[in-house]
Structures are given as structure tokens and as C-alpha cells.
Amino acid sequence: MGIQKPAWLEALYTEKFFAGCSYHETAKKNEKNVCCLDCCVSICPHCIPSHRFHRLLQVRRYVYHDVVRLEDLEKLIDCSNVQAYTINSAKVVFIKKRPQNRQFKGAGNYCTSCDRSLQEPFIHCSLGCKVDFVMKHCKDLAPYLRRCNTLTLGPDFFIPQDIADDEMTNETPHSTIVDSDEPMSWSSSSSGSENMSMASTDIVRKKRSGLYVCARSMNKVSDEDMASSMSRRKGIPHRSPLC
């Protein structure tokens, strides 16, 4: 007796994608567009941290149907004789059947399950069509399955900003490890006060001639600044001579 369909294949065929995630109802970008092959469930981008060590397969949308990249799917199962389509320079394969009623068939290739017109030499229009054809005629899917221990998402997969921020906050940025037997001591009060005064130097905005001029606080004004400000004073007005 041949091997039955693996659990991940059943999940890929039966799970509902591009629906809102029930665990992240209030989050943005919560459409379930990833299939976790180890848990056999559809997940959204916000679920990725909980499945980061699992095999993840991204599901895309093309003409209102679910598709996956051919490059990713070939790591899991033999996709020969399945017609692929090009989306954004990447070849994709339809997951489910796309039945098409035809009263009359002309010359050419047609799908073994859907009677859909195909290009040569393809005979299956989707992954589901090939799996059903193999199970019906060969009774054994094992020769077509491939061993895949790791499967990660592509570099173009969109990760929401809040997830990236959370991963950054979980880390300890700018941390320093001091390897010394002596205890750490505070610096002198004079140097500490200088550092505090430099750090607390604020920016004062003064309105002059309708423009805002940025300057340091008044106790930090240099002699050159004072001289330049004095030179801008108005001169003494002179009376015009009498005629």
C-alpha cells in the first residue's frame, strides 16, 4: 500500500489563507499568508516569532487563487509536468485545482483533472491536480516527496515594523561587559559637572527680524558672538543740514 498524503500537504490544501488571524485581530497586516509545515496551520506575520524554528512556506495570491513559489515547493515535492506562472520575476504554482467546464476540447494539452488548456509539455495545472493523478494511477506518493529539514521565508517577505521593534527591544543594545576585579568608581565631581553641563546645554531660539536664530545658552556665548552682536547695533542718527 502506498504512502498517504503528508500532513503538511493536507494543511496546504485545506487551510484558509489570506483571512484575518484570530490571535492578532487588532493588529495591522494580520492576513494569514504563511503555512507552518511543522504545525500544519496557516499563520500571519505576527505569529512568525512563535514558529521561527519551524519550516515556513509563504503563500501568495495570483488571480484570486493561492500560489507558492516553485523554488520553495520543489524542495518538498516533485513538481515536474506542473505548469508554472511568472509573478514579479518569480515562478509560482497553483495549490488547488481550478476546474473549467469545456463542452469541446480542441487539439493541445489539457490538465488531467481540470480540463484546463496548458502549454506543452505540461499536463497538470496545479499541485493538487498532480497529487490526485499520482494517487489515482500510481497509488504511491513516496517517490515524489523530497526530504526537507529546513525551509525559511524569502528576503522579500514583509515583516511588520512592530515585530522588528520587539525583536530589537528583546536584545541589549550598546551593552558593555567589564572584566575586572576592582569595583567601578565614579568620576570626579568636577568632570561630572562638566559632563552634566555639556549634556544639559539647551538650544534657545531667539526671534530676530522675523527669523528664528538658534544659539547656545547665554552663559556659553563667546566673545566673538558678543562682538558680532554689538556691531549690529544701530548708529546714532544725524540731523540733516538746514537749507
UniProtKB/TrEMBL annotation:
Residues 171-199, 223-243 are annotated as: Disordered. Residues 184-199 have a biased composition (Low complexity). InterPro entries: PLATZ. PANTHER family: PLATZ TRANSCRIPTION FACTOR FAMILY PROTEIN, PROTEIN RGF1 INDUCIBLE TRANSCRIPTION FACTOR 1. This is B box-type domain-containing protein. It comes from Dovyalis caffra.
